[in-house]
Amino acid sequence: MKKICVLISGGGSNLATIIQAIDSNNLPNTQIACVIADRDCQGKYHALNANIPFRLIERKLSPDLFSQALIRAIPKDCDLIVLAGFLSIIPPEIIRTFPKKIINLHPSLLPKFGGMNMYGMNVHRAVIEAKETESGASVHYVSDEVDKGEIIEQISVRVCANDTAQDLQKRLAPLEHQLLIRVINRLLFPAK
Ligand code: GRF
Prior knowledge:
The chain is an alpha/beta fold. It has 6 helices and 7 strands; from the N terminus they run βαβαβαβαβαββα.
């Protein structure tokens, strides 16, 4: 049985997708060992309703206390740590403790529209303002530099001329969910 830990900060649609994929056997032999949030957020109800262990580690803690609490909360035998809408920076000591085991889902075709303050609707607004005709989502390994880790897989989506940021976000969300489940499967169960 593979164990994953999911980190959230918001609505948790990607967490809900992982739970649903496990329940429908689209993520076989996998269990979510714990869900960790860095703030009180709606996404926690997906964990609580599924009886998945949930921890809130307040991001307002000092960086050291935040890091120590995070290290204590993440099971050492975790096969994969998935940042699904998680907005806090992962401390370097966590990255060192779990080398190439922490992945992040970002709502753009990195390296474009990544980095500090590039999250959620900020990304879609920037894509629209830049008059891009294509956008998408990326899953990458988490490194010390925000959104600059090795890209594992991407999925693209067209941007229509009159799109608002909300239109783009709505069109991209289901594709993000597909991408995330595909990558988790690929990393947990690499083809022989
Ligand atoms: C999504 O756009 C995802 O790409 C990004 O965080 C946003 C919200 O995710 N990582 P969720 O609905 O909280 O899972």
